[in-house]
Amino acid sequence: MTSPADRALAHVRGLFPAPGPFGRAPITVSFHPDRLLADGSTVAARLAAEGVYRTQFETGISNGGLGGDRPAWEERMFPGVYAGSVGRPVYGGLNLAGYPDGASPRFGSCHLMLRPEVSGRATFSHGDSVTSPAVVGTADAFGAVWAALLAEVTERGQALNLPAVTPEAWVAALDAPRTAAGRALDDYVEAQIHGGVTLSADVAAVVADPSFRGTAYEPLLRSLAPELRWSPGFRLAPGAFPAGLRGDEVPPLAAEIAETYGVAELDAEVIGRAARGPASRLQLIKYLWHILVLLGRPAC
Q: Whole-model pTM?
């Protein structure tokens, strides 16, 4: 582990030292395998070639917000720890509910499922770092995050997109086997992995959207980890994309993409092809993916 990673973990452990239940929930790191990097290579090809998951500061692309205030967020969360573009935290989610689409599917159609030992050098926050979360923890100091999740169940009737009448029922529901997608677009425990992610050492499996089965991406995805699994996936007819969720421009774009590629339904692979179009549409492409996660029917 690098010196910055040691300092980041020590800082967070000092804020909320109570242990709290943690279990063996894996961290998942989401990505779109077909998005293009500046040199024209795809994310999957670069991962396969380098064997390292790189942050947006190194790749220049993001499935969330690119650049902007992120250095300031990281300085607030880990004071004096990180500088420059190399060695910054890798972001994922803690999959406490065991969702087959990962802890935070808004950030990609596929995800890396990290080995349990990686959690020992991760920090966690109740909410995404964009929200300036006040509650953070580590695997051995998770009590405050756990308490915040239980309070969320009491106040909202759900947490991690998992509804329950009482906190006790919600805790019991966490242990239930799950085959349906969680669709937890905004409702997740964010994980910040310190010390980087090396595929050969840190990744137990790759979980991919089934729309990439039989494509040129499948062998690349298989090469990233000892195991390739398929998630339930998402499919949605263009006419089912509502304007109310992400704006009036989304339904016409869905219809245009379906017509351009001659498909009756949109899925991750088709949206990925559309993402190679004008850069001015990339934000709308992200919105298409968000709606697909929220409303799409299982692909398999």
A: 0.91
